[in-house]
Amino acid sequence: MTTVQPVQSNGVIKGFASNEKEIAEKDTYYVTGTEIGFNGPDQILPADSSITTQANGRVKILVDNDEASSLKPISVPGLLTKTANLFPNQIALVTKPDTDGKRKTYTYKEYKNTVRIVAKAFLKLGLERYHGVCVLGFNSPEWLISDLAAIHAGGFAVGVYTTNTAEACQYCANNSRANIIVVDDTKQLEKILQIKDNLPHLKAIIIYDGTSEEKDVLCWNDVLKIGEKESDDKLNDVIKQIAVNECCTLVYTSGTVGNPKAVMLSHDNLTYDAQSIIKTLRFSEESEVLVSYLPLSHVAAQVVDIYCCITIAATLYFADKSALKGTLLDTLTVARPTVLLSIPRVWEKIYEKMQVVASNNGIIKSWIASWAKAQGLYYNLNKMNNGIDYKHWGYLFAKWFIFNKVRATLGLDRSKLCISAAAPLSTEIKQYFMSLDIPILEAYGMSESSGAHCLGTPNYCRLSSVGKSIFGAQTKFDNPDSNGEGEICMRGRHIFMGYLNDPEKTAESLKVDGWLFSGDLGKTDKHEFLYVTGRIKELIITAGGENIPPVQIEQLILAELPALSNAVLIGDKRKYLTLLVSLKTDVSLTTGEPKDTFSPDTLKWLASIGSTATTVSDVINNHDPLVYKEIDKAIKRVNNKVISNAQKVQKFRILPHDFSVVTGELGPTLKLKRRIVSEMYKSLIDDMYK
């Protein structure tokens, strides 16, 4: 194998040279040794800019520090092939249980071979270069295989949220010029059948979880049979044309304002971000186990479940479709993951259930639990803040007597790392899990940064920080104030290429010298730990001109009254601040829709204040004075903590149901949709300003 090294010009990789003579003689180098580009997939082809919005565009690979240049670019097909060759018999994928309770496995050799079979089928079905393969379904091996097969065949992998309407699916399919759409079941298939006549580029529809009587809809076995009959020649020819500085994946933003933007991610964006995450967190080859359940149409799940796993030959278990509705624990106790990526709402739900269990403990058990949690919190805070891994006797006893049992019950007995992403996790929740010897680290990034940009590390972090920049990445702040707080800007090889066919929006986000302007506000401390303090577009600017970050106040209110599920601050261009709140209720396991009935811990809280209400309707229709009084008291306690009168909440309203994806207030990763909430509850909001 020829050893290559990066050749830089003004901080930009121009290619890779195989010897010092080449470096001395030439200014531009390509792995192929030619600009034609038929020696892929790990070649770097000529590019004039670090930004493109064209489907067939290429970009320069930015390297301006030793860390970034130390990781050699590798394509997605190159990465999978490398791992399959090194670890052919390592278990790569473990399916959810079938009707008999059995799980099917794929080794890395089988994983790679199946990807190639499906890629050959896609080419036979008419997939063209730089055209999309939309995947619309819940996490499964077929989802990953379809995604990777699209890339191997020279197309774009395009994840589509299962919560999308038919019209939203149509936009994504047309925008990506999708030749093929892969769905998991008849529910998603119905959406595509509604719009198929409006998709001029569409050539095939595939269903992988079941079959369909519809004409021209292929089942998964049909696709495998097609691919198995094809020779490797055409696929190999396509792979030879692939370059690491070309787009391979489109990730669509949430689109809360206008149509979603298609984030163009190159091979190098994704494989570099995965390698950098692994170096930052020190993952081990052949030994990590993860669980896939967060939407794969989101970049965080893709970079972890697909690319981090392939890079280190990890084993990935798949949860069932009800994972986010309450069945995740079933998969965790089987898989016993060494690394768990989650979102704040999952940690909150686990916390709530554990609080219910703890409330039934007697006096002695409660005292022992309190003592043990104090030991766990002391140990983990000392380790996090000072990097000191000193296990005092109290911690060791609590670990043996309590912590190990709790972790085993949650399926986290082997877990080395728990990560929360997508939205801020409250300090209270983090401290609670830390006291049980389950420290949760936060990650920060966005689709445009290929996933992670900052990460906390197990031995060195801060409780309210999202950690430091990942290996080779850079962070700065635009227009900082006197406290050093400004817009968070990111730079590095993980920063996206541009928005497909949208140069105007691209120019708004990607600015001077390759810096991505995030739209988030933040600051760092003297140790370079990043703190995200709000979002510029979410800033409430009152009629009096006060700039107020809503998240901080909302979290204070939620911490004061755990029975509240959500709190949304209102007040933009208004004379004073108001608040919308929802109470914690039961959730339908079949639809994910919030019920009218209260959750057990809410019922217990209601009983403690003397209320007999059992539903949200009871509280609102009767204007339950006990409930309203307690919420008002919690708000007043927070008002005493804020720094100015402008930040005090004057009025509030209780919403008729909790938030959910189904009812529209939350996005697919359970992020709050502020604009949607403001529109949905406009009458309640207006009433508070009469």
Can you tell me about this structure?
- The chain has 23 helices and 31 strands.
- By secondary structure, it is α/β, with parallel strands linked by helices.
- The strands form 8 sheets. Strands 10-9-8-6-7-11-12-22 form an 8-stranded mixed sheet. A 5-stranded mixed sheet has the order 15-16-17-18-19.
Relevant terms:
alpha/beta, globular, five-stranded mixed β-sheet, 37% helix, 690 residues
How would you summarize the topology of this molecule?
Blueprint: E1 5-9, E2 12-17, H1 20-25, E3 61-62, H2 66-69, H3 76-86, E4 91-94, E5 105-107, H4 108-124, E6 132-136, H5 141-152, E7 156-159, H6 166-175, E8 180-183, H7 186-195, E9 204-207, E10 217-219, H8 220-229, H9 233-241, E11 247-252, E12 262-266, H10 267-281, E13 289-292, H11 299-312, E14 315-318, H12 328-335, E15 339-342, H13 344-359, H14 363-386, H15 393-409, E16 417-420, H16 427-435, E17 440-446, E18 451-455, E19 468-469, E20 474-478, E21 486-491, E22 498-499, H17 503-509, E23 516-524, E24 530-535, E25 540-541, E26 547-548, H18 550-560, E27 564-570, E28 577-583, E29 585-587, E30 594-598, H19 600-608, H20 616-621, H21 625-639, E31 649-654, H22 674-680, H23 682-688
Parallel strand pairs: 4-14, 6-7, 6-8, 7-11, 8-9, 9-10, 13-14, 15-16, 16-17, 28-31
Antiparallel strand pairs: 1-2, 2-3, 4-5, 11-12, 12-22, 17-18, 18-19, 20-21, 21-23, 23-24, 25-26, 27-28, 29-30
Helix pairs in contact: 3-4, 3-11, 4-5, 4-8, 6-7, 10-11, 14-15, 14-16, 18-21
